[in-house]
Amino acid sequence: MSRAAWGLTTTAVFLVGLLLGIYGLAPMLQPSPEELMRKLRVFPEDSAWRSDSLRIIGSTTVLPIGESCAKEFMKLYNVSIVVEGGGSGRGISGVIDGICDIGMASRPPKPEELELAEEKGAALVLHKIAADGIAVIVHPSVVEGLGGEPLKLTVEDVSKIYSGEYVKWSDLDPRLPDKEIIVFTREPGSGTRDTFEKFVLEPFKRELRSDVSVQPSNPAMRASVEKTPYSIGYVGLGFVTGDVKAVLLAKTEDGPYYEPTAENVKAGVYPISRFLYMVTRGYPESGSLVDRFLDFVKSPRGQSIVEECGFVSIYPTEEE
Question: How many domains is the chain built from?
């Protein structure tokens, strides 16, 4: 036998022995050969991250993506990842103050946040991870007189509701209830509120009416609209359920009117769309746990999770 052939045989025996050593104690749980080889891959240059931990905080819109990706990542690797909500403002300030490793945000940083970051020597880096649309939702009682048709509003109609120019639903359409419009919005610092006002109020130089009810998260907003007749609110795409009615939106009265769907956001036709971000303090060190986790979120599996959460992938998925 040649020296080269002897070397290959020895290597093969070593690998078989190693596999038996690893999995011999649990024969019923043996993974596929592909999984075995994946687990055997060792990258000495970045193995330190495998014993590290992450804290991720911020946007309640991005929260389902962060939680789902963290669970999947922790199944693959023996690391600890804690994911918390609190809003985009909390996520960005957490990165600036060094409280968390990654902030989640549904908007870019505000000028005052960038100024604070500069004062504290924190260079904020935004990593786009998904796209989203903000769906305007109403209680089912609002559309009872439409004979099964969806409610269609222009962005300016919504602006007039939120500024208080329209007080009753019948002000928009005589087929709608002659009832006062109950208006819900998000808390200050919310990225969803910031984006909503940027598209709905600012272009028409209108301000938010003073008698709105403020909700602290997307789930709280949806729950409030679900249980309050004649109400209106707004949530990220991933939070729309059959218990509320999504409004079709148009930029002008001439239409066309678009449903808040991932397809319409991806096509660029839905009027209120945005990117979702993970934010770091500077570029993460190559080979660090932050770097590896962000790579996972942008990977085909991570982007499939984005879609499973009801949002829009911006990188290739497992199906592509």
Answer: 2
Q: At 225, is the secondary structure helix, strand, or coil?
A: helix
Percentage of residues of the chain with pLDDT beyond 90: 80
Q: Looking at residue 46, what is its pLDDT? A: 57
Burial-class residue 258 by CB neighbours within 10 Å (0-12, 13-18, 19+). buried
What tokens does 264 get?
A: 């319409």
Residue 215 in domain: yes
Asked if pLDDT for residue 30 goes beyond 70, the answer is no
Dihedral sign of CA atoms 291, 294, 299, 305 in order: positive
Mean pLDDT of the chain: 87
Same domain? For 117 and 177 the reply is no
Q: How many whole angstroms separate alpha carbon 214 and alpha carbon 297?
A: 31
* Nearest one of 181, 191, 186 to 151, comparing CA atoms: 181
Mean per-residue pLDDT, 232-253 = 96
* Helices 63-76 and 289-298, axial angle in degrees (round to 10): 110
Residue from 44, 90, 46, 83 nearest 188 by CA? 90
**Domain check: are 11 and 126 in the same one?**
yes
**pLDDT, tens digit (0-9, with 9 covering 90-100), for 192-220:** 999 999 999 999 999 999 999 999 999 99
178's tokens? 């002659």
Please tell me the pTM assigned to this model: 0.79
Same domain, 121 and 17: yes
> What domain range includes position 111?
3-132+278-308
- Name the H helices within 98-190: 111-119, 155-163
**CATH number for the domain that contains residue 193:** 3.40.190.10
Report the range of poorest mean pLDDT among 23-32, 105-114, 257-266. 23-32
Neighbours of 64 (CB within 10 A): 22
Give the distance from CA 307 to its chain's centroid: 10
